[in-house]
Inverse folding.
């Protein structure tokens, strides 16, 4: 193969794009994180993640689901009055942010930044193999393969969508030890053999270093749990 391909798109599937990375390319793609005011407002998140690639590597397509849908209604562009010479593209139907392009300098105009979350899940996990992640993210990340295998096994056993529920081990490693790393979220789903019953669950835990107490659900305070347990001890079930 002369190229390695990365794929992405919006949530509803009307917008899709492909990044063609030549094997002998003199230029490189770059993953970066930004907490500046402009990206913070447009992405509605305190920290946005991007994949910056040469514009010549990027190809995009729109798909109409109904006859009255046009290319311009599917891929929308917005230019902020505070960012003249810049364009942010997003899906006009599901609202997924897709890309950011600017000509604030001659060098910038030759590149486009794609929202990291719009990449396909399998390609997000390939970023490490392609050498696109900052080196400090990869430190102490030796268990990635095992984590991915465990996630895949769990997904198959519960029948959940891989794309929707698999994590990103390299990102989990990056936030481990930080304030973000202290919050853990897991979810699952199980269906009875006859298909009549389905149980879904979501657990949010907050851990604090130096606290010997076991992690508890972030939705209830520890004191409330203890109080409820004491009340339950006074309740007797009558048959």
């Amino acid at each position: 193969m002369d190229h390695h391909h990365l794929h992405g798109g919006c949530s509803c599937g009307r917008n899709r794009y492909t990044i063609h990375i030549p094997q002998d390319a003199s230029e490189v793609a770059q993953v970066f994180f930004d907490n500046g005011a402009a990206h913070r407002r447009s992405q509605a998140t305190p920290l946005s993640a991007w994949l910056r690639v040469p514009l010549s590597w990027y190809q995009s397509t729109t798909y109409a689901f109904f006859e009255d849908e046009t290319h311009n209604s599917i891929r929308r562009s917005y230019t902020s009055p505070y960012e003249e010479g810049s364009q942010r593209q997003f899906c006009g139907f599901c609202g997924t942010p897709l890309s950011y392009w600017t000509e604030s300098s001659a060098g910038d105009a030759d590149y486009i930044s794609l929202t990291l979350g719009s990449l396909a899940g399998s390609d997000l996990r390939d970023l490490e193999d392609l050498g696109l992640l900052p080196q400090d993210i990869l430190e102490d990340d030796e268990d990635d393969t095992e984590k991915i295998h465990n996630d895949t096994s769990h997904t198959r056993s519960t029948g959940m969508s891989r794309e929707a529920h698999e994590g990103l081990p390299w990102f989990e490693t990056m936030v481990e030890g930080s304030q973000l790393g202290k919050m853990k979220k897991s979810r699952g789903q199980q269906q009875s053999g006859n298909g009549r019953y389905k149980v879904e669950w979501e657990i949010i835990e907050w851990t604090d270093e130096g606290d010997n107490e076991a992690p508890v659900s972030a939705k209830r305070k520890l004191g409330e749990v203890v109080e409820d347990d004491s009340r339950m001890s006074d309740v007797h079930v009558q048959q």
